[in-house]
Amino acid sequence: MTQVQVELLGISRLVTGEKETTLQLEEPTFRGVVRALAQKYPEMLGNVLDEDGKDLNPPHIFNHNGVRMIREDQMLESVQDGDQITIMAILAGG
Amino acid sequence: MYGYSGKILHIDLAERKSWVEKKEEEWYKTYIGGVSMAARLCWENIDPGCDPLSPGNPICIAGGLFTGTPVPVGGKYGMASKSPLTGFLGDSLSGSWLSVALKRAGWDGIVIHNASKDWVRVQVDDDKVSFHDASHLLGLGTHDTEEAIREELGDDQVRSAVIGPAGENLARIANVSNDGRKAGRTGQGAVWGAKKLKALSIRGTYDVEVADPETLLQLSYDILQASQGPNTQKYRVLGTSSNVLNMNKLGLLPTRNYQQGVFEDAELVSGEYLHEHYKANTMACAQCPIACEQVGHVKEGPYAGAMGHIEYESLYALSSNCGVNDMAAAIQAITNCNELGTDTMSTGVTISWAMECYERGVFTKEDFKCEKYPEGFEANFGNAEAMVTLTEMIAHREGFMGDLLAEGTKRASARIDEERGTETYKWAMHIKGLENPGYDARALKTFALGLAVGTRGGCHNRSAAYDPDIKGQVDRFSVDDTRGELAKSTEEYAAVYDTLPLCKFIRRCFTGKADRAGAWPAIAKLINATTGWDFDYDAVDLIGERAHTIKKAFNVREGWTREHDHLPWRWQHEPLKEGASANSIVTDEELEYLKDLYYEAKGWTKEGLIPKEKLEELGMDDVAEEIGV
């Protein structure tokens, strides 16, 4: 099993009440992270995640190890044991 | 003509008279409204080359196409004049009930000429214009001024745009306020102050006629429904201040005057922290079902009673960028800016420049003398009380430092460097004289280009070029030949919204997709149902290019050259040292390469000037005559 650390920012922090969590992934991809989150936090469904728990709802996006943002077409890419993933939603304006 | 009255109201403050100008439908099809129409009115009415604080610089206000209709988030107006900060076009947008009153009074726009001899409040009641003594309003804050006018008229529905003490004192970073919203950037408040115009009040009683009310109502209802779903949830629940932790994670949060991109206490000044400890309410602009404004309220401690609208751009400028980790102090500083009438971003960035000057020994404690602290005070980064006190000193031009910082970063820095032989320009964080937004563009290379070439200066609202960088569409740390087209595309995308105007926060609510393909067909339907025109995808797209072009043309006529498209010295010479964006910098070579790409994408010359043929192609023949090459 691949283990990743997920930091929760914004709405994901609000609905779960947690700042970070550790996930054991059956499927070591970003899509697998979404599925593990849906399983652990059903309260994320319909807001941070889509109703089926298969994808992130825009404008939420994964950041990988602090540097790289993961686009929709990169969700099947692999994650490694010990990776740091952050859920964020970038907003323009203000 | 549907959706418009076909009339612009001109007001002369010196002669105390007004007159009506009628415009043809083709003019409206070209310039639409908002910032585009306001910029066009500036083009037509300014004395080219004038001092921004002279009578020759008009205040130009343009309503919104959808204002006064059921279209969600369409209650905005644009305001423009020659900016006292940049010397180029200063344009601002404000979501406001004033825009609804303007439309219902039967005016598509207002141009205010010349300057009054005495302080004046202008009242527009439908077709009638009257001039009233405003001397009793002097010194009042923005909220109190609006309330005093309501009380005076015995009418709680009158809508006013006003300036606070900062505008009266000609602070170049002063703004214009209405219903608590601001035409915030580029120093519009100083232009009002120079004209001795304290307030513009409007009451309107006419109906707004649209071509196809039934269709417009249905389209509006669909957007309204979508605006209550996940696409706007973050705006509604947390607001834009939730960007603090995002930017910090990416190493892009301006910290201690952009010396760092990571703030060790970001959690304490985050949107999440605000929500948990200080949130009092949410508020909405006119016609807005989203209600993104998070109202922060301090209930105890030295800043008890402070209550302000907390947006990300205000928050970074008046917390991390001043090294301050005290949310209560940030709320107080933002409240001061709102009430005294200064732009929070320019105020915060100018204060952070002064704090760095203090830490480097350019300023001493004595330079910060004021009534509250007759011996002066320590103005090091992290000193919350210094930050709060400086917001007051700036608005009142109090003491040496208040008077200096009221000039904005560019002028303050130039004056000190001349008088003291220093090099503070190296940490003067502005572009074209407008203080920078809350994204460190050293590690956002497309956005760096968007900011450098922006007609308004250091502004995140007119260029959306951070989008491809932050969302991973391109490698944000490097440059390549796609960036010119991206900068063009994103600024024109933003210009469509700023021209209609519609708040950009609605952009995912048409089809779920925020891109052109997702939004333009729906916007075309809204335009057609309002006006009876026959706009399609391409016609909507053209709105943005025309809007941007008229602003650029204005700047060219005011003496713009390629050298004006620059970045702050720090972003080009001092790499970020830590965090996810460490070692990033924009080199001269990169910037000049990017500018070449951008001018080419725009169809301009290598010097960044606009060919006559290009202007004629956009239907701007008279502009082509004056500045086309």
Give a verbal description of the structure:
- The complex is a heterodimer of chains A (94) and B (629).
- Chain A is α+β, with helices and mostly antiparallel strands and 94 residues long.
- Chain A has a single domain (2-89), classed as Ubiquitin-like (UB roll).
- Chain A contains 2 helices and 5 strands; from the N terminus they run βαβαβββ.
- Chain A has helices at residues 11-16, 30-40; strands at 2-8, 20-25, 60-64, 68-70, 84-89.
- The longest helix of chain A has 11 residues, at 30-40.
- Chain A starts with a strand and ends in a 5-residue tail after the last strand.
- Chain B has 629 residues and is an alpha+beta fold.
- Chain B has 3 domains: 7-203, Aldehyde ferredoxin oxidoreductase, N-terminal domain (Aldehyde Ferredoxin Oxidoreductase,  A, domain 1, 4-Layer Sandwich), CATH 3.60.9; 230-399, Aldehyde Ferredoxin Oxidoreductase Protein, subunit A, domain 2; 435-627, Aldehyde Ferredoxin Oxidoreductase Protein, subunit A, domain 3 (Orthogonal Bundle), CATH 1.10.599.10.
- Helix content of chain B is 40%, strand content 13%.
- Chain B has 25 helices and 17 strands.
- Chain B has a 6-stranded mixed sheet. In chain B, strands 8-7-12-9 form a 4-stranded mixed sheet.
- In chain B, strand 7 and strand 8 form a beta hairpin.
- The longest helix of chain B is centred in the last third of the chain and has 21 residues, at 537-557.
- Chain B starts with 6 loop residues before the first strand and ends with a helix.
- At the A-B interface, helix 1, strand 4 and strand 5 of A face helix 8, helix 9, helix 10, helix 11 and helix 18 of B.
